[in-house]
Specification:
The complex is a heterotrimer. By secondary structure, chain B is of the alpha+beta class. Helices cover 22% and strands 33% of the residues of chain B. Chain C has 2 domains: 31 residues, no CATH class; 180 residues, MetI-like (MetI-like fold).
Chain lengths: 341, 381, 281
Amino acid sequence: MKPDAQSPKAAAPAAERLAGGSRRALDTIGRLPPCRWTQALLTRWGISARTAVIAVPYLWLLLFFAAPFVIVLKISFSETQIAMPPYQPLLEWAGERLTDIRLDVNPGNFLYLIEDSLYLRAFANSLQVAAVSTLLALLIGYPLAYAIARSDPRWRGILLMLVILPFWTSFLLRVYAWIGILKNNGLLNNLLIWLGIIDQPIVMLQTDFATYLGIVYCYLPFMVMPLYANLEKMDLTLLEAAEDLGCRPLRAFASITLPLSLPGIVAGCMLVFIPAVGEYVIPALLGPADSLMIGKVLWTEFFNNRDWPVASAVAVVLLLLLVAPIMYFQRVQGRESGGRP
Amino acid sequence: MASSAPAPTRPSHPWNDPALEPYIRIERVSKSFSGFVAVDDVSLNIYRSELFCLLGGSGCGKTTLLRMLAGFEEPSSGKIHIDGLDMSGIPPYERPVNMMFQSYALFPHMTVDQNVGFGLKMEHRPRSEIADRVAQMLKLVRLSEFAKRKPEQLSGGQRQRVALARALIKQPKLLLLDEPLGALDKKLREHTQFELVNLQEELGVTFVVVTHDQEEAMTLSSRIGVMDHGKIVQVGTPQEIYESPSNRFVAEFVGSVNVFEGQVTASEAGRMRIRCAELEQALDVLSNAVAAPQARLWVAIRPEKIQLALQPPQAASNWTRGLVKEIAYLGDLSVLLIRLESGKTVRVTRPNVWRHEEESITWEQEVYLHWHDSSPMIVRE
Amino acid sequence: MKDKASPVRLSFLVFGFAFLYIPILSLVFYSFNRSRLVTVWGGFSTEWYGRLFENTQILDAAWLSLRVAAMNATGATILGTLAGLALARFSRFRGRTLFTGMITAPLVMPEVITGLSLLLLFVATEQAFGWPEGRGVSTITIAHMTLTLSYVAVIVQSRLSSLDISLEEAAMDLGARPAKVFLLITLPIISPALVSGWLLAFTISLDDLVIASFVSGPGSSTLPMVIFSKVRLGVSPDINALATIMVSLVTLGVIIAGVVMLRRERARQRDLRMASASDAS
């Protein structure tokens, strides 16, 4: 049997009230001249509604998402110039004829990235920071997601809402909150001194520790959400079966719950790791002044040194580094959402 | 049953009248989905005011055939005519056909009367006419006082009736019903079956019903088309399908049956003598089937057509002997599994006529199985 | 099996939520501090709220950000709905793989890359076609739409895949043409998904610092850009006040949504009782 169309979940009640008023409006809109004209025009051009539905967002993304990467690639091969824009054109019309086009491919920027160990270290450091933060986020997020998924169903919605709530408040302000907590005369140091654990403030702000903390804090909801979604739909009778067969709870967790939640773990880790590699705001505010995060390096090259070609080269390398995890994420995402053929 | 008491509005057996033009003509229709053949060269005629059932297991192509009638799928080859009109290339919204969906597909954001009136609204009928016809339709399905409710506020049976009313309000030439009773519980289903038949006879609309439930098909239909692997394997009245299945698949799919492999030893007009290795005595069968001597064929006997006795029958044929292995008491009848000497297990049903019957037959008892010479059916592989 | 209040699970919850909320609560707490030194308590005061509302730079930036966020959310919802529709309903078309890739990649793409590449595009098109003339509200909006339409598309797609397709077929069967089916059946039913998509796109836009920094021009500083430049110089109490206002607004919204959902749930329970009561007929 097919899932019942009238099941409460399918018929989200919010739709109904909205729809009650909007249906008549939509009906009228559909009959207004402009709508009819558009339809007639599309028909005359032989463009079906289907084509239009696909083409509009497709063209938008091609223009504003795919094309920019081509330009980044192009500029990463050009030379810096003191001008606006501060790079040499890659294609030059040297003469009248088409054959006079001179292609200036200049791999200098990439060679520069290899020669100056700063960039290599920045890439390595970014990957390491992202990996460690992802692991920490998993260590905090998994128990939290697990506890929510196994709590009383009446509370689950509220608890989940509490996880997402910080995500809706400003990211920047949440990072800012940690400055107040971590700085030398901040909340945490004051507390530790008051408790008598330390008598001199520990330097916590502008350290790698603060960077890790900031990333874990800001990306925690991204870790918890997919984990929760996975753990919540798990069949609890599997655990009962395991215990019935003589498996102790901890063992049952390790041999049943954990392997089954692997897709959630992978999705959560990807959602934290990939953006964290290129993170700028958190290391800029919480990390050490000379912190080597690649996002920060790119930002500095671009805004402070105004070296657009090198910034572009950094972006190209960063993108190449992330292509594999991004494609992997897409496959996971596709599997999760792919219900229909 | 519907077939035994046809309404005066339709000729009793239109399919036997060669002069009558079929209302729906399906001509050599095939449909394949990326290499998989869902419907394979099906030809079928359905007559006006028939209640035709497409019966088959899941994946047999019955739903695909129905969806081609509705216009949701185009045939890969072949043609469909409805009331003389070629339907190729005509989209669902322009066909004189309506459908009742398995999930009912009631629009969750509309009330019952908005759901029922949707089809008329799409025809831009005047508001007053829509209101009148909706009221009339709701009265017919006894839902007048639920007009302002949302589908969510209705029970399963009520939703089913809303879906029916919505599909009927445009007075379609043909109503398609996809597992119309599948979502109802058993008790309600039986009641609704008869309601559906009555409504169909009252309105005279041609119904095509898809179902996997043979009991439902038997109760509802004037004729049944049994489908298997995308092909129609037999078309006939419920009685024809049950009593004279054309092949082994139909015999086994509709009801249960005991099948024996046999060899023709003698045949004369209307009679045939068959030797089955699994049975002790030869079969003496009344049959019009033509078979060459020595031909191998299949003989099927329905469980209710086998009688049990404790003494050997007098006849020289049409009986065998076995040990009772299982007895299942089902209330109205009992099912017995009897193992023959050849190792073959035979299924026999006996009605429980008396309330406190002294059970004369018990486990591990030797019994004699015998049957009338009209009971065995000769079936093809 | 389900022990009601396992202490282990309770401690997970307490620790997790403490980690999430103590920083936010500290912001709120110190926004009412008289002292300029944010972390030294100098008595209760609402002085910083007054200061905040005198700060025209912040107010202008906030207004600009709200405008951009609203335009972005509307545009992204339209484009994202089309994209979600294409993904959910048209299983095969040329370039579908590339399309899916361009929808999911922005979800995880580091913002520095998106920001830089969009800026370079705008510079190149300005050179080539004279568009856009300088950078500001329009370029920020376009950049944000490109990012957020993916979020809307994913939400809409998942809602559409869980929608019983026979609802649309039923409407078509009753005589509605495809465009009508979409307007009268699909759109009203998926409208909650559109609302949440719109809100998400709005929030992301309101919150974005990196992409906006790349594609904005002189004189078009968004709120996050202003906050960032202030915060870089250290903590300042009026930012605490601003944070408190934002947190309160979001919390209020969530509470309202919660109450509405609770009411709906009660109404639904009532409906179910009504349905089972009328089952006899």
